[in-house]
Write a structure and sequence with these properties.
The protein has three domains: 113 residues, Cupredoxins -  blue copper proteins (Immunoglobulin-like, Sandwich); 84 residues, Sandwich (Immunoglobulin-like), CATH 2.60.40.10; 84 residues, Immunoglobulins (Immunoglobulin-like, Sandwich), CATH 2.60.40. The longest helix is centred in the first third of the chain and has 17 residues. It is mostly beta strands. The chain starts with a helix and ends in a 6-residue tail after the last strand. The radius of gyration is 40 Å and the shape is elongated. The N terminus is likely disordered. Keywords: Copper, Electron transport, Metal-binding, Signal, Transport. InterPro entries: BlueCu_1, BlueCu_1_BS, Cupredoxin, Ig-like_fold, Ig-like_OmpL47-like, Ig_E-set. It holds the Pfam family Copper-bind.
Length: 325
């Protein structure tokens, strides 16, 4: 009997040793939901890379009193996030698990975006930041570069303004933030190219931080902004006369003067006229002259840069209409 018992014990030992066991998850992350369709009731913000147990509970115990289902879905398409975890858990208080579901996934360093796919629940969204775990944690800072663009003069200075574009890359946990600083002012989040238009010498510093907390070396670009070449060309002005004319070219009863001006630089600011030596007057509409006799009309235009055209002179005569028989 002892021999048989020993044999059974040996077989049990062999069977126990030969059955593989799954590696335990390094951490457990729990999301919960309730009656609110605008947010998850609770959600983790950070995690460590590696095997992870995901728990999603949407039950009476977490505050769901209506039976409303929710999902916990990991985004696999939005640019800028990790896409290596496919997870879509549908949970409700009355499902077979009473609203509590688990899944095992492997997280990698970077950022994951999660959301609820139920129509009308689109604001239930968040981010999970994952840092390196164990001996493989991310200790390498991001790389950051800056580029200056804009119109330049012969001396290489930027005319009118300069635009600084910052780019950062990180092969580990991923870039978390990019910041910039203009001329020793306070650091600001970088969200779009920075336009510097103040005249003078400038230095723009920039840095990046990854999701593991590593900060890059501060980069810098220096440049000078000078005034853009000014508009020195005056407008052109013309005057056109219309009306009924007699055989000698005089205008019968009245003449209408239409003044126009063009400027391809800064644009026309104002048009003025002077009739028969009177005061200069702002031109706003065609001018009707009905007084019989010889007339002299002067016109001029000024652009938005302050350039004024040469004065144009127009001579014409208004004659009285002949008496009708």
């Amino acid at each position: 009997m002892r021999t048989g018992a020993a044999l059974i014990g040996l077989l049990l030992a062999v069977l126990t040793i030969s059955v593989p066991t799954a590696a335990a998850a390094a951490e457990t992350l729990t999301w919960t939901a309730d009656d609110d369709i605008t947010r998850y009731r609770s959600a983790p913000a950070t995690a460590v890379a590696g095997a992870t147990t995901i728990v999603f509970e949407n039950s009476a115990a977490t505050g769901n009193t209506t039976g409303m289902p929710h999902t916990l879905t990991f985004d696999t398409s939005t640019e800028g996030y990790n896409h290596d975890v496919t997870l879509n858990i549908l949970a409700g208080p009355f499902d077979v698990n009473n609203g509590r579901h688990t899944a095992t996934v492997t997280l990698t360093p970077g950022r994951y975006r999660y959301f609820c796919t139920i129509p009308g629940h689109s604001t239930m969204v968040g981010e999970l930041t994952v840092t390196g775990g164990g001996g493989g944690e991310d200790t390498t800072a991001p790389a950051v570069t800056g580029t200056v663009t804009g119109d330049r003069d012969a001396a290489g200075d930027y005319t009118g303004s300069a635009t600084v574009t910052v780019a950062a890359t990180d092969g580990g946990s991923g870039v978390k933030t990019v910041e910039y600083q203009v001329d020793d002012t306070s650091w600001q989040p970088y969200t779009a190219p920075v336009v510097v238009s103040a005249l003078g010498d400038h230095a723009v510093q920039f840095r990046a931080t990854d999701n593991a907390g590593n900060v890059s070396t501060t980069g810098s670009v220096s440049f000078r902004v000078v005034a853009a070449p000014g508009d020195t060309t005056a407008p052109t002005v013309t005057t056109a006369l219309t009306g009924e004319r007699n055989a000698t070219g005089d205008y019968l009863g009245r003449a209408t003067a239409t003044i126009t001006a063009t400027d391809t630089g800064s644009g026309v600011d104002r048009i003025e006229y002077q009739l028969d030596g009177g005061a200069w007057t702002a031109y706003t509409a065609p001018l009707v002259v009905g007084t019989a006799g010889m007339h002299m009309l002067h016109s001029r235009a000024t652009d938005k840069a302050g350039n004024t055209s040469a004065v144009q002179m127009t001579h014409f005569t208004v004659a009285e209409r002949p008496a009708e028989d």
